[in-house]
């Protein structure tokens, strides 16, 4: 029984979580019930099923899903993704940058029209030829607005190809927000991209890591760019609804302050992620930071519950998406999305460099051990198999963890840079993930117990949004 059910004690309630079905059952605290669940198998418990509470537990356990079924029921690969840079350089020197300000790739060539066209053709006619839809992201290598001409070329190629194949190609453009002039403004008006801008909280927090090459902070420039875009009457709603992209690290550890700063800038959508750094970085979290991080997210949940009392959806709507570090956990639990992989790197997602080399994702760009191939010759299946063969039940430590199907395992890159093996998760990550899943279950249980209309409305909103966006995996 205990291998399938996780029991959480909170406020004299027992929150039961079915690890396989994601069902949640809340019972009044009772040591006898707890002993039954933890120390007896289901056949023994059934003998007491005339008791209405025990019957609920038996029904809860008997959901018709097995782990073997999950193993053989892999998520359909309907979305294929590619990311590529316009140039491997940046005007900033952010202290946690995985691309090392564009220096992660030794070749400094700007991407050209021919490579962009070849990369898109490879995505839709080869790598993802059976996909229903596609996504292109400009997040790797460097700052895209340093090469605005190639960004225009990319959008023209993507739009033409989308019409030709009669399939959706979603584009997401990530910028550091420091380059904004008349040419950039005209581009945003003409092409209406979905836009993400990197901002790490208020001025003091942001400027601890997001600095120009001369060491000066970038916050005021970013704030001005956000204000000008949001106030521009001729830009599309999609572009003006900027996503705030935040990296949480040792020196800006205040999640509620980050969210409040986003609200002050009129931002409604956010992605907050923990920095993935090796042990030598001054910004890397260590185990002394565990309690601080847990307190931050504990305070956030208290704030979310207060907002539920006030029928306020502003904070939960900001983070309830499939990329925010905490919000995606809540979302997966609500929609019962069970994930078997940490991400789709090398499986349905690739990163392409300016010279046409292919890597599993942006973080691995420049690491020859993980070079998948190139656009001219295609992908080496031997390397992609390393990723394909690592669902969560094949990864060390993950296979018996109770959060495995919520989490999907540690980021492959993070495991690699900290343990030298992408199959071995970082202990710090595991501690945080377990805590956040438990915290999410407490939050959802309290919504269902004390704020049922709020929970129902939230459930309706997230279900509708997921259907409209075609989101199938977390």
Structural descriptors:
474 residues; ten-stranded mixed beta sheet; three-stranded antiparallel beta sheet; globular; disordered C terminus; alpha/beta; 42% helix
Describe the protein.
This protein is α/β, with parallel strands linked by helices and 474 residues long. It has a domain at 1-65. The protein contains 19 helices and 13 strands. The protein has helices at 31-39, 42-46, 52-61, 67-71, 113-127, 148-165, 182-191, 203-206, 219-230, 237-240, 255-264, 290-309, 314-319, 327-335, 381-388, 404-407, 412-419, 427-450, 452-469, and strands at 5-10, 13-18, 24-28, 79-83, 133-138, 168-175, 194-198, 243-248, 269-274, 349-352, 357-359, 373-374, 378-379. The strands form two sheets. A ten-stranded mixed beta sheet has the order 9-8-7-6-5-4-10-11-12-13. Helix 5 (113-127) links the parallel strand 4 and strand 5 (133-138). The model is unreliable at 467-474 (pLDDT under 50).
